[in-house]
Amino acid sequence: MTTKQSHPKALYTLFATEMWERFSYYGMRALLTLYLTAELVNGGFGLGREESLAIYGIFTGLVYLTPILGGWVADKFLGKRKTVYIGGMVMAVGQFLLAASAFLANSLDPATRLFLFNFGLGVLIIGNGFFKPNISTIVGDFYDDNDPRKDSAFNIFYMGINLGAILGPFIAGTLGEKVFWGWGYFAAGVGMIIGVLWMKAREASLEDKGLPPGVTGDQVLQGKDWMQIIMYALGLIIGTLLIMTVWHILPDSVTKIITIVGFIAGIGGLGYIIFKGTNGADEWSRMVVILVLAFFNIAFWAGFEQAGGTFNLFAKDNTDRMIGNWEIPASFFQNINPFAILILAPLFSVMWLKLDKMKLNPRTPVKFALGLFLGALAFFIMIQASNLAATGVKVSPMWLVVVYIVLTLGELMLSPIGLSMITKLAPTKLVSVVMGLWMASFAAGNYFAAMLESILHKFDLPLYPFLMWVMIGSGVILLLLSPLLNKAMKGIH
Fold first, then answer.
1. Is residue 102 part of a domain?
2. Would you state the pLDDT for residue 272?
């Protein structure tokens, strides 16, 4: 057992596993809109800005929606550990499919190539759903709800996320942008395989955490468990292919109806699971807090996720990227946020512990409000950069650097705190499902991030000022609600 002063070895096992998964994801994400908008002669798809942002929005939205399914499967059937392995293996296949869409560009007709690309995205979406919520909740399993180390542990875990987010755009992004798109995606797939192998090699450090329901005692998974993992992974890949094949041949009117019915059924199913699994006034009170904060989380991420969309295109089209004779790859700007997190996350981790000892640690709703205000400040700065670029000049890269750093300060007020909050407030038997619900708020934020520009354009509203005022308003409302939310948390800090 660990002492109260130290973190368990498992934290660093999970830290590195998540680091490689994020290497894979952010390496792919840094290339996505650039690959889609690149001309056909340069190996891309030659899509327009609006169409590429729509694909980006649907992908990043669904990436955060499928964790509801992955969390339910872990809680009900497989346990978190098996589900993480399944997700990692499936995501590696998804990256290799994206690589194939680039390597086979001259061998496939455009329609088949686009189908292969979309198949890769679909496999990544379902794999992420199995991986993402469960690795975070295994971290939470090692700490009591009011253990002051818990927020600190999630800040350390968050550093792993962002170390991977640095390495991904640097390695996969550079290979994709400067060598060939396919090598970027191939590197992302290799990174995911390394993550799975690392967790397997260090599995004993997980002790008795993340095992299937009803299984107890410190142990590692055996041969029959791995057969089940492989069968599930193959089933998910084949199932994704079948769904996409059928979807491809259905009329648009039918797919729209299926989408609406599926969305309603998904929300209804999630509501039923939470309703059946939540018992007593305290659990329901805490669940209300989670739902309220999830709503405000959407507002922050609708702004933050401009990073892979409009900010990425701003870096490519409106930013002076020349240093002497060398042009900075546009994907490199994706590294500013994770670099800032690596520097700032340890400081935040220490700061929360110090403030806790001084009885000055802000409650979770106040931290969220501060994060929203910092997000608003970032978009105020981005408005100035955008106005300058509108005059026809290419702006200094320092504009984006400052915007990313201020957004990172806001992110550190929300994201690791939100992960920690779910493991504290959710009913014990529903932790992974509720983590999936929390990820669904990221899904909505990601979708709005990509779609807002085209929606606001119809009403002649500028994107960045709109996001600034949404964040200011959300922060003010959350501050006003914080006394009620603190009371509703029923003793959880």
1. yes
2. 85
